[in-house]
Amino acid sequence: MIDHNLGGTVRLDDEETLALLAGLYDDGAIRHIQVQAVPLPRPVFRERLDRVAASGIPSVVHAPHHSHGVNPCAPAAYDDRPAKEIEEYIEEAMRQTLEAADILGAETIVLHAGRFEPGGRLAAIETFAHFLDRHNDPRFALENLPAVYAGYPLLGNTAGELTALAGEKITRFCLDFPHLACTANHRRLSFLDELEQFEELNVALHHLSNIRRGSITDEHLELDHPEGGLDLAAVVARLRRHPTVPTTLEYKDDSVDVYTRQVRVFAGLWEDRAGSEAHP
């Protein structure tokens, strides 16, 4: 029996990856999946959701984010749709997200604060607070985002910033290791110091992939990527200190078997760390 709670990510409409992850679950290699809720036409949404539910795999749900047209802190930023259309789209997307969590019995819903236009940080903070007034759920876990991506800034990059954004409405958090490393590189901060700050937060989920050495760009690279620069020793040390907190692998590779390979890589890292702890 594995002594960690590892999982993989699947879009709600990706049946091929779902089948692969179901096989890994049956083999005991993973213990959960993260279902990326993407807005879908109603009949398709229920059909896909029912198929995920039928797999019987314990799930967490990831709410749609700006890449899916749902940008809580600045809904109209980088979006040329009419404001009314954006509002209605977000409302339906969040309804689907909560329904997915209900049907799947998910205890955690990962949420991004979103991206904003340069100079709009204060307005973004206020807008996100209004979003939480309308959409609030005890299952929400607010995720740290990289400081920048593709030239635009994102909201909620460090433990302190997440705490401020959450206020009293969100009490749980998702720690994304590569996002934190990108932020540390961009701001020239210590990754280890920033990681330590998350010990003060109620972290309900970890996200794991890799980034290039010194990069500020989140690419969802494999853990064993030859140019990988994430401090995996520090990451796995934290994971072993918090073994009951699920860790979800997140990849953008079009090849679904990336999870088969990366589950093995993670298992090796986990065991290597166990060996070093046993023989300091």
Tell me briefly what this model is:
Residues 45-255 form the Xylose isomerase-like TIM barrel domain. The chain is an alpha/beta fold and 280 residues long.
- Mean pLDDT rating: 95
Task: List the strand order in the largest sheet.
Answer: 1-2-3-4-5-8-9-10
SSE pattern, N- to C-terminal? EHEHEHEHEEEHEHHEHEH
| Spatial shape | globular
The helical percent reads 40-55%
β content, as a range? 5-15%
Domain Xylose isomerase-like TIM barrel: 45-255
Protein name: TIM barrel protein
Organism: Methanoculleus formosensis
Pfam family, one: AP_endonuc_2
Describe the protein's topology.
Elements: E1 6-11, H1 15-26, E2 32-36, H2 42-55, E3 59-62, H3 83-104, E4 109-111, H4 121-134, E5 140-143, E6 148-149, E7 152-153, H5 159-166, E8 172-176, H6 177-187, H7 191-197, E9 203-208, H8 232-241, E10 247-249, H9 258-278
Parallel strand pairs: 1-2, 1-10, 2-3, 3-4, 4-5, 5-8, 8-9, 9-10
Antiparallel strand pairs: 6-7
Helix pairs in contact: 2-3, 8-9
Protein name: TIM barrel protein
Pfam families: AP_endonuc_2
InterPro entries: Xyl_isomerase-like_sf (IPR036237), Xyl_isomerase-like_TIM-brl (IPR013022)
Structural notes for this entry:
This protein is of the alpha/beta class and 280 residues long. It contains nine helices and ten strands. The protein has helices at residues 15-26, 42-55, 83-104, 121-134, 159-166, 177-187, 191-197, 232-241, 258-278, and strands at 6-11, 32-36, 59-62, 109-111, 140-143, 148-149, 152-153, 172-176, 203-208, 247-249. It has an eight-stranded parallel barrel with strand order 1-2-3-4-5-8-9-10, surrounded by four helices. A two-stranded antiparallel ribbon has the order 6-7. Helix 8 packs across helix 9. The longest helix is centred in the middle third of the chain and has 22 residues, at 83-104. The radius of gyration is 18 Å and the shape is globular.
